[in-house]
Fold this protein.
Amino acid sequence: MSNPLVDMEKPDVIFCIGTNMTECHPVAATGLKKAVARGAKLIVADPRRIGLAELSHLYLPLRVGSDTALLLGMAHVIAREGLIDEDFIKDRTTGFDAFFEHISQWTPEWAETITGVPAKDIETAAMWYGSGNKGAIYYTLGITEHICGVENVQSLCNLALMTGNLGREGTGINPMRGQNNIQGAGDSGALPNNYPGFQAVTDPEHQAKFKAEYGREIDLEKGITKVTALELCGDSIHAMLIDGENTLISDPDREHCEHALRSLAHLVVIDIFLTETAELADVVLPATAWGETDGVCTNTERRVQRLRAAVPPPGDAKPDWWIICQIAQRLGFTGFDFNTPKPIFNELCRVSPIYAGLDWDRIESGAYQWPVPYKEHPGTPRLHEETFVNGRGIFSNVHYRDPAETISEAFPVWLTTGRRLQSYHTRTQTGRAEGIDYLLPEESLEVNPVDLERWQLADGEWCKMSSARGSINIKVKATDRSPRGTVFASFSFADVPVNLLTGSGYDPVTHTAELKVCPVRLEPL
């Protein structure tokens, strides 16, 4: 997030797109509710009429996978109406002239033909956001889990750069992280293209730095993504370590994923429970849970926080860092003789510029948000206040692209997936709680009531849902939250493997799967 969570209460105009925040980030969403109560205008763009849409002043029910078209139409209106921040553009950006000419062709009337959102509503959304003194953008996986996820994010950046809604209180571009410490994992270098602190692996200076640090030759090239790794299982990859992820349930195209994991000669899983993925492993190493672990977590607003074990771990469970160090030592690697997490975190601070001013003792109270470049630095709650790290903000001339698969005679219905308030992700934890099971005992397919008769379905009955990759049986639930022609289900329940159907494509840059768009066919059972 470019802005701290406290800023969620301060915008004049809030634009939420591809984020079901009241269900997926219910605590953070209270900040937006306070802003709306204070008088802020709320614009919500989502294919489903989610809870956030019920709170909105303007709801844009766009067709799944059409976000880029909507954002191009909004940019056209902002430029046409002269709602741009000329000083900000002149002083802090580059490429605006070419961008201004590029968006002249993408009218709201054109966007309506793609998104299904009335042109007048696209104009209203653009006018509200462009004329606000403090405009804030919030998004989550509904923007990134597409083959055009990068273009979607670039389009949001264009809106913020046009209007100068960056580097100020109550503004910004704010992606809400989807899982605990996903921000901290990226900060620590758990990415194929970056060393810790987002230092590019293709930069020779960074290569030399880490070669000197660890005394090893390091390739000057990007690593492979998980998508590529699964494709190479049984070919050039024969062993795999999966730590804290239920890959079999959360990844798209389950049949392909299971085949890949079964093709390995050796699979090791580190987890707190025997997940569906762990059941495929040759070796399962039990890890400690969050309440049993000392360590560090960096949250969605870049706040670096100490974790403290509240209870002793059960049985032979050990912290993930300890398990990994033990494996490294048995493989003959040096430098893994850590006995506590403190020196591990201090090493991260030593090699990462954004953590350079921190250490284990300084994060005692969780008071700092990176970057913290030196010891006396107070932290950076709000990014881009004076300048951009890379110099100037760059306008991107993006184009709309159809999803990897679109509806057809064989698969005439749009399926989109996500999460539900009552269960989390693949239910590794929430699925073992009786209270949660009472609230959400099974998965269901949300179908618009008007579509039931057309598709010969009945509320509460079962149907067969098929895509180009396979079929599942799922119970039907009539609800007007889903628009006509679109259905929704979560991927939480292993006995209703919705992600067996998804996986039509990946973003070519990030390899993020297109989990939000999948053409399907529905048949009554």
